[in-house]
Amino acid sequence: MVTKSRNSSGLVWSLLAIVVAMGSLIYCASFALDLFATGWERLNIVAEYFGRIIRGGTA
Fold this sequence. Notes:
This protein is about 80% helix and about 0% strand. It is an all-alpha fold. It has a domain at about 30-59. The chain is rod-shaped and about 75 Å long. The protein starts with 8 loop residues before the first helix and ends with a helix. The model has no long low-confidence stretch (mean pLDDT about 80).
């Protein structure tokens, strides 16, 4: 069963909302990836630091 909308502006607003949502996801994805990469790098630095302390090396 197909229902026809009485107001065509509803479709336009829905499409606009989808475009805005996709744009914000694309915009924020770069920040999320950068945060993940920076966190991974810091985690490796901390792991190496504690590894040197445990082995008795100089920090």
